[in-house]
């Protein structure tokens, strides 16, 4: 698994696992990016949303203001026209009217000329005025173009005004005037008589005036304003309404049902913001149409700016993250590299990280650990060297020439006595004895092998000592497959034979126990020999426990060798311990750990 | 089955049929937005489409409304029209403007009037629309200023060349009387515009007669007043005040004298200094100015007759009667210092202010 850190029960850790992000640097990069970006994105999205809401509000408000302005312009202009129409009460107009009805041709010359002059002056003052008409109830008309006759009953303004009060203004939507010019007309009733017949004063205004007040406003790039009445388009600037949407918009049920308001209508898959207001003076609905996309083009711009700011922030955060993670993880990576080198047996390595943070402390601990490892390694080397030497000495001690000659002499004796079977048994035992002694150079052997080795040794010695002693093995089966340092029992058994039983008058007995106690393997080699005095027993135990040094290195060499080899291999808590009573016997207890099974 | 039950069944059948007819129309406002593209959103209707005609309508079209010269023709035309039971209309541009005059004739064609009598500002430009009106079945005549190349029925007015000739003869008489017939004389001309056929004829008649009479005339300037009586007097007065004073002033119309004579002190002084002033037109303000010494000779037109004869003859034409001639001469009125007062007594004061 390498240096992959196993993490659990965490979303980010799960994410890391999913994407196999092993290095702390990657994790830190992702964390920093997430910590940097998530607040910015949340802030940005909330700001964007609020801005969008505000923008829509402003657009709606702006459209309403635009419509309001158009309405005001129209209202102001029509009020001016109303003022002009006060001429109908003027003396000259009244005289003209009376003389005209009376048929006084000569008498009316002055008033005719005066009216034309007045009309001319007004036209020059108000360039949008196309014509001013004064139509009597009989249809006799005087206008800027002269005098002519009309059927007044078919005049739309007359039809509207006939049943209204005299001071009410009527507006006729755009139409063609006498000279085929596009105009809209404003009219008022004049000289209503007792029968209810009435003349009219009408002022024709160039529709370009409507175009002008429509084009004075701006509703996006292609937005426009038009006028509607009773579901019909009164006027729309053709140049703006290229697609002829005005007719479609006027049929919108919401627009038809309310006087003022705004709505969003989709026409040909394009959303339009439609704001409308009914003009009090004309009764026309002033309708502003603006493509939503154009009005919200700022949002597109904002989106672009937002995108680039976020990109910039990501780059800055990424660079900062790379820098910070480098600063933070470089010591770690350096330490990791050092550790890797150390793991490849370069124990001479030293972590040169001089930070005061956890990594510095870790490096310091690592250096301490490496020192300890080096010391331990040196100690192990020393111990190994010691073990080798002691083993060699143990071997030399074991295979004493005297033992070998005597054994070989015994075999010769048996052969001379034709006790071939016995000779074979001893040779066999001797062979086993040497073979298990060598153990193919292994320091640690199975307990089974150690027991076999002792068994061979005891058989040889029993024969050599003419069966002066018996021996007994009480070994628990469960310990056979554990391991032990080799050649630890033979010196102890040898001591029992040579120092305990050899000089006995009675038959000696050596008992070898093997069992497990408190997770330790215990061997007990007991004899019924002469025993050791208490003082000496204590001295031996002190020496075995390392509490007392021997004056002569050859003193107790065999048991010291066994004891030290056990301690070197398994630890100081293991080793030998003697129990003895004079004339009763001696028991040496060996404890070793359970290893190797 | 009794009669009542039978009628109930019939009612039920009608009700079911009515529902079948009405229900498809109850689908709410399911208008097809996409189907209404590129359709003009507004259409314009003309206000005064001429309805069923009861009276004959003849429209008189002067060069401009603001020139009172034509008012005599209008009033006389109206009087005659009333006698004949004809509705006489008077339609023209406020100031002389050929394009407006053309538009007015177009509107008269649309309104299908019975007759048009027009004083042409530009005889060439107006010709197509006159011909169009004629093609539309409208009887068209000209008065005061003709469009000879058009298909109009007749021209009713002054023999403008003859008027010019009369002015030329008057000049010769004045020059000889003042002993200036041996010297070259500087001439200042005033006319309405370059196009008017009637005015050009008057000018030609004047120049040709004077030169034929041995008078050497150097034209030092021409003032175009565009038929505007309001500016003509100022133009003349300003020119005189520049010091570039002529020996002779000739005007093809009476425009400069519509202004009060007191508004022309420079010109008055020039006249007193021996300047010779000859004008066409003998209406009241012109005669009044002439009497106060602003003119030596006048050659007048008869606008009353123009109105009268135009309407009478056009009425005849509408009625299918024969027109006596394609030129109906309304005659000339000659005035000089000896008869200015007498002529003035026979005129009506213009009370237009």
Tell me the layout of helices and strands:
The complex is a heterodimer of chains A (597) and B (353).
Chain A: H1 11-18, H2 24-84, H3 91-102, H4 109-125, E1 129-135, E2 140-143, E3 146-149, H5 156-161, E4 170-176, E5 182-190, E6 199-206, H6 207-215, E7 224-229, E8 232-235, H7 245-250, H8 253-257, E9 261-267, E10 270-278, E11 285-291, H9 292-295, H10 297-343, H11 358-398, H12 401-416, H13 420-438, E12 444-446, H14 447-464, E13 469-475, E14 483-485, H15 490-501, E15 508-517, E16 520-527, H16 534-544, H17 557-570, E17 575-581, E18 585-593
Parallel strand pairs in A: 13-15
Antiparallel strand pairs in A: 1-2, 1-6, 2-3, 4-5, 5-6, 7-8, 7-11, 9-10, 10-11, 12-14, 15-16, 16-18, 17-18
Chain B: H1 3-22, E1 56-61, H2 71-84, E2 86-91, H3 98-111, E3 115-118, H4 123-135, E4 139-143, E5 155-157, H5 160-177, E6 185-191, H6 197-212, E7 217-224, H7 229-241, E8 248-251, H8 265-272, E9 276-280, H9 284-294, E10 297-300, H10 303-319, E11 327-329, E12 333-336, H11 340-345
Number of strands of chain A: 18
Structural class of the secondary structure composition of chain B? alpha/beta
* Terminal Cα span of chain A: 28 Å
Strand order of the largest sheet of chain A: 3-2-1-6-5-4
Query: What would CATH call the homologous superfamily of the domain at 399-593 in chain A?
Result: Histidine kinase-like ATPase, C-terminal domain
- The residue-averaged pLDDT of chain A reads 84
Helicity level of chain A: 40-55%
Question: What portion of residues of chain B belong to β-strands?
Answer: 15-25%
Question: Would you kindly provide a written description of the structure presented here, covering whatever features stand out?
Answer:
The complex is a heterodimer of chains A (597) and B (353). Chain A is of the alpha+beta class. Chain A is rod-shaped and about 190 Å long. Among the domains of chain A are: 90-210, PAS domain (Beta-Lactamase, 2-Layer Sandwich), CATH 3.30.450; 218-295, PAS domain (Beta-Lactamase, 2-Layer Sandwich); 399-593, Histidine kinase-like ATPase, C-terminal domain (Heat Shock Protein 90, 2-Layer Sandwich), CATH 3.30.565. Chain A has 17 helices and 18 strands. The longest helix of chain A is centred in the N-terminal third of the chain and has 61 residues, at 24-84. In chain A, strands 3-2-1-6-5-4 form a six-stranded antiparallel beta sheet. In chain A, strands 8-7-11-10-9 form a five-stranded antiparallel beta sheet. Chain A has helices at 11-18, 24-84, 91-102, 109-125, 156-161, 207-215, 245-250, 253-257, 292-295, 297-343, 358-398, 401-416, 420-438, 447-464, 490-501, 534-544, 557-570, and strands at 129-135, 140-143, 146-149, 170-176, 182-190, 199-206, 224-229, 232-235, 261-267, 270-278, 285-291, 444-446, 469-475, 483-485, 508-517, 520-527, 575-581, 585-593. Chain B is of the alpha/beta class and 353 residues long. Chain B has two domains: 56-158 and 303-322, Rossmann fold (3-Layer(aba) Sandwich), CATH 3.40.50; 160-300 and 334-345, Response regulator (Rossmann fold, 3-Layer(aba) Sandwich). Helices cover 42% and strands 17% of the residues of chain B. In chain B, the strands form two sheets. In chain B, strands 2-1-3-4-5-11 form a six-stranded parallel beta sheet. In chain B, β6 (185-191), α6 and β7 form a beta-alpha-beta unit. In chain B, 50% of the residues are buried. Mean pLDDT of chain B is 86; it is low at 15-40. Chains A and B meet through α4, β3, β4, β8 and α7 of A and α2, β2 and α3 of B. β3 of chain A pairs antiparallel with β2 (86-91) of chain B. Chain B: InterPro entries: Bact_Solute-Bind_Prot2, Peripla_BP_I, SBP_2_dom. Chain B: This is LacI family transcriptional regulator. Chain B: It comes from Ruminiclostridium papyrosolvens C7. Chain B: GO terms for molecular function: carbohydrate binding. Chain B: Pfam families: Peripla_BP_4.
